[in-house]
Amino acid sequence: MVVTEITDISKRQSRVCTDQDISFVLYKGELRQYGIAEGEELPGETCETLLRDLLPRRARLRAMNLLQIRDYTEKQLLDKLLGGGYPQPVAEQAVEYVKSFHYIDDFRYAGDYLTAFAGRKSLRRMEQDLQQKGVPKGILEQAVAAWQEQDGGQDELQMACALLEKKHYDRDTADRRQQQRLYNFLMYRGFSGEVIRKALQMDWDA
Question: Residue 63: which of 73, 53, 51 has the closest Cα?
Answer without folding.
Answer: 73
